[in-house]
Amino acid sequence: MTAKSAAAAARATVYGYPRQGQGRELKKAIEGYWKGRVDADALRATATELRRTNWRQLAEAGIHEVPTGDFSYYDHVLDTSVMVGAIPERHRAAVEADALDGYFAMARGTQDAAPLEMTKWFDTNYHYLVPELGPDTVFTADSTQQVAALGQALALGLTARPVLVGPVTYLLLAKPAPGVAADFDPLTLLDRLLPVYAQVLTDLRTAGAEWVQLDEPALVQDRTPAELNAAARAYRDLGGRTDRPKLLVASYFDRLGDALPVLAKAPVEGLALDFTEAAADNLDALAAVGGLPGKRLVAGVVNGRNIWVNDLEKTLATLGTLLGLADRVDVAASCSLLHVPLDATAERDIEPQILRWLAFARQKTAEIVTLAKGLGGGTDTIAAELAANRADLASRAGSALTHDPAVRARTAAVTATDGRRSQPYPERAAAQRAHLRLPLLPTTTIGSFPQTTELRTARADLRAGRIDSAGYEERIRAEIGEVISFQEKTGLDVLVHGEAERNDMVQYFAEQLTGYLATQHGWVQSYGTRYVRPPILAGDISRPEAMTVRWTTYAQSLTAKPVKGMLTGPVTMLAWSFVRDDQPLADTARQVALALRDEVNDLEAAGTSVIQVDEPALRETLPLRACDHPEYLAWATEAFRLTTAGVRPDTQIHTHMCYAEFGDIVQAIDDLDADVISLEAARSHMQVARELAGHGYPREAGPGVYDIHSPRVPGADEAAALLRRGLEAIPAERLWVNPDCGLKTRAWPETRTSLENLVTAARTVRTELSAS
User: Which of 3, 178, 399, 754 is buried deepest, with most CB atoms within 10 A?
Assistant: First the structure.
């Protein structure tokens, strides 16, 4: 096909769409089902209607081929485990008794069976359920869900493409099941898995699929020759079968690198590449392999992970260079639109001109359609859209919101000494022990306590004017008092105020900093039914006034025990926001760090002796390619130190991280120079404690003994057993006892019992240590 005919054939598509609905109907239905207020048929009806709504919106916008299989009740990787029959033995009976309840048991656990481990989906804030595999795993095909979704879309008269997690990525994301040797490599199961995928593909073809997309984002990471050979074997096998649909192998989040020639040679009909995160690299690599003659190229040219409007003219130029490199060039977002909110037009509190800078999922589909039209019909066919786009880009570039000379002058004046504590850790540790006088194995929580219906109602009433600020603040005071009283009675050693006044650990601060925009309806799925509203980092950042001192000081006035000041760190403020794309991330991080530094210093001046600066996103934001790690870790750790280095030696700095793989950033954790770090460890069976020990981490650490992402209540014996495993790696004088993460999403009954058990476990192990 000539470049001209390839352009004329251009079509618009997407890989996935937000699942929750305009009013988060899916969240409400699922949580209603868990509480017994919604039955299974009603939940399924809600899901069916949401899928139909999504497909209709896409088709009406001009998307030529809609995705199926991207919708999920909880997580698409968990759906894949169900599809291939990889059900953990401890959940098999529950799944066989009731497929839906068994599915949620794998995700959330039961009182008798722990859930699957949860961690971040590559470098995003989406969490997936980690498959558990072993040498005895037997795969069986169950394409019921995938076939049903395809059938629903086809019944609406739509052209539909099922989207599945690819077999290589699925195995690379998996871990050895409990009881399996830690060095077991799930990729050795590939030959056992491929026939199951082949059967699913056959089932989808029989159901009417012309194309099926197999997502292989793991191939944009550094891969060994053996892993690349496995990918080649997988697609040689699947592509060589005759009873299958056409195959589109998709990659995203970074450059495909050495995997590109492997996939280009594979007997598949199409590839999808990301031309936003690594446009030049993927373009050069594609040209180097001679393009994709006879194949379909789906070009991910609209950023699926950020919310700024696309530069249409620049993107059309990129698309133009792709013509002639493939038999057919289609236009798409760079990845699933799961990672952005649904619709920017729902935002009523953002100035109309600024709103034109933003593109959520519905706006991005319009951009994709416009680009496909321009690629196929020429720029004259989209002249009005191009003119409006130029005006929007110029408006943003010239706005006073994006440039504050005072902020930039302060940032430019930062020196290396601003990011160093005044004394080395051993001297600080001695000063902190003398000042705080904590027992062996001190107990604490991560920060938040349950956000009750009453608290959310009070916040909504304040926004709606049903109560005034005085009434709202009285409710917050009462909640803080209850939280402090409970912690004292339970016997916790370092207390928190519970964060009753906070809507979200990033949004709360963003709403008080200049340069940020907050949304009212910009919900994005983090995991399961947990949705967040990432704020928008639109301009230069500063802190007009103290943000947390008032409530922290009030909490401290209620107790003689130390109360932690709680802040969100600069890297997480970036990672869980939609960041600027008009300056380097390092520059933005330094601005945020300086604003937070002012808050840390004000907390200390108000008498706060323990200050926690959370950085759960430090690992999440790590670039996918190792060659990009040093630059990122240098500015990320500098930003944390810049935030925390201005305090006295006897002020104890904590940080917290959760639900990620930490083994490859232990040196960076060390470089933060925090006095205490708490980390998720319950689901991973204290893996991180062993990783810290292997590195020789010299500071104090609290690997979690209570998994807060499950409603199950761990007994005191269970928590004590985990604590003893932690002691195998970390000396008692440096070990803290805490949950995995904040308790915001938990209910009070399970929180009370779990924390009481945590304190009992700490006391039990203290007694054992004193007797030994």
Answer: 754
Return the SS3 of 558.
coil
Residue 86 φ/ψ, nearest 5 degrees: -85, 70
Cβ proximity of 713 and 476 under 8 Å: no
How far is it, in rounded angstroms, from Cα 78 to Cα 707? 19
Identify whether the C-beta of residue 577 lies closer than 8 Å to the C-beta of residue 537: yes
pLDDT tier for residue 280 given thresholds of 50, 70 and 90: confident
Rounded CA-CA distance 745/756 in Å is 18
Q: Which residues pair with 358 in a beta bridge?
A: 308
CA distance 661 to 647: 30
d(CA 458, CA 460): 5
**For residue range 683-741, what is the model confidence (pLDDT) as tens digits?**
778 888 899 999 999 999 999 999 888 888 999 999 999 999 999 999 999 999 999 99
Encoding tokens for residue 66? 């809609």
Choose among 141, 233, 253: nearest CA to 187: 233
Q: Which residues are catalytic?
A: 709
DSSP designation for 410: H
What pLDDT is attached to residue 452?
Answer: 84
Amino acid at 533: R
Report how far residue 431's alpha carbon sits from residue 650's, in angstroms, rounded to the nearest whole number: 5
Using DSSP bridges, classify how beta strands 246-250 and 524-527 pair: parallel, antiparallel or unpaired: unpaired
Q: What is the pLDDT of residue 355?
A: 95
* 3 state SS of 612: strand
Residue 666: burial class (beta carbons within 10 Å; 0-12, 13-18, 19+) = middle
What distance in Å separates the CA atoms of residue 309 and residue 576, rounded to the nearest whole number? 19
Query: Tell me: the pLDDT tens digits for 78-122?
Result: 999 999 999 999 999 999 999 999 999 999 999 899 999 998 999
- Distance between terminal CA atoms of the chain? 78
- Stretch 470-487: mean pLDDT, rounded? 95
Give residue 620's pLDDT.
Answer: 86
Rounded alpha-carbon distances, angstroms, from residue 155 to 158, 169, 207? 7, 31, 11
Q: Residue 89: what pLDDT? A: 95
Q: Are strands 127-129 and 118-120 parallel, antiparallel or unpaired?
A: antiparallel
Residue type present at position 547: M
- Asked if residue 433 lies in contact with residue 649, where contact means CB atoms within 8 angstroms, the answer is no
Q: Output the pLDDT for position 578.
A: 97
Distance CA 300, CA 318 (A): 11
Cα–Cα distance between 564 and 425 in angstroms, integer? 19
- C-alpha span between 242 and 245 (Å, rounded): 8
pLDDT in tens, 656-673: 998 667 788 999 999 999
